[in-house]
Amino acid sequence: MELKGVVLAGGLGTRLYPITKVVNKHLLPIWDKPMIYYPIQTLVNAGITEILIVLGGNTAGEFIKLLGDGKELGIRSLYYAYQRGEGGIADALLLAEGFVGDDRSVVILGDNVIEGNIIGPVERFKRQRSGARILLKEVPDPQRFGVIEIDEAGKPIRIIEKPQNPPSNLAVTGIYMYDARVFDMIKTLKPSERGELEITDVNNMYIHLGEMEYDFLEGWWMDAGTFESLLQTSTLVAKTGANKVKLEDRGLR
């Protein structure tokens, strides 16, 4: 089964003002590479080489100058879409409907950088009959994230967005895997109090259907969307590297 990759790099990056008044945050450097390179490499490492990038802001054309047709990064086919304003993650994903079609997709936020890879979870997603799969990570400050509640049998119960009293310390990372039904689900959503279509609502729909699986992400994971996390991510990449792939992860010995 061939999967399609979607990198969500829209939004206005307001947490990084005033820099993002003149440049999209996903073009900012993480150590020695533009931020957008890292989520792309995460997909390519997992064998996903047909990719759509959802852009936003007033410097979207700079992505084409930087990435071109994507061949230098190992992309077989690269496409672009444009998100107006900040409608949320689910709103941005809906722009990929024509690109994904009836196929399955692996979606990653453009400011997410990981130490390891997602080869194992992607292969398990391919073997799922239907549904969705998310990646979880233990964090010291779950109040900042969407947090999953899991029952004693390990089944997901619900995901709560930025809870004051988190039911666990397991954050939902910005890496999601969906079957083609995700687009019909998004179309049923109503904007949240933030005025956005929330991806947490979509994930809870899959949980309600009993069709949400999960894996734990190995290695560190960073959301490089603030000045503090941007600096921390660059430091981690400089010290430990990112997107590491072991031979056994590729099925090689």
Written account of the structure:
With about 250 residues, the chain is α/β, with parallel strands linked by helices. The protein has helices at about 35-45, 60-65, 90-95, 95-100, 120-125, 180-185, 200-210, 225-240; strands at about 5-10, 30, 35, 50-55, 75-80, 105-110, 110-115, 130-140, 145-150, 155-160, 170-180, 210-215, 220-225. It is globular. The model has no long low-confidence stretch (mean pLDDT about 90).
Helical fraction equals: 25-40%
Number of helices: 8
Distance linking N and C termini: 24 Å
Structural class: alpha/beta
Count of the domains: 1
The pLDDT mean sits at: 90
Lateral strand order in the biggest sheet: 5-4-1-6-11-8-12
Biggest sheet character: 7 strands, mixed
**Spans where pLDDT lies below 50 across 5 or more residues:** none
Number of strands: 13
H/E element order: EEEHEHEHHEEHEEEEHHEEH
CATH architecture label name: Alpha-Beta Complex
Q: CATH homologous superfamily?
A: Spore Coat Polysaccharide Biosynthesis Protein SpsA, Chain A
Short description:
By secondary structure, this protein is of the alpha/beta class. The protein contains 8 helices and 13 strands.
Key terms:
8 helices, two-stranded antiparallel ribbon, Spore Coat Polysaccharide Biosynthesis Protein SpsA, Chain A, 26% strand, 253 residues, globular, seven-stranded mixed beta sheet, alpha/beta
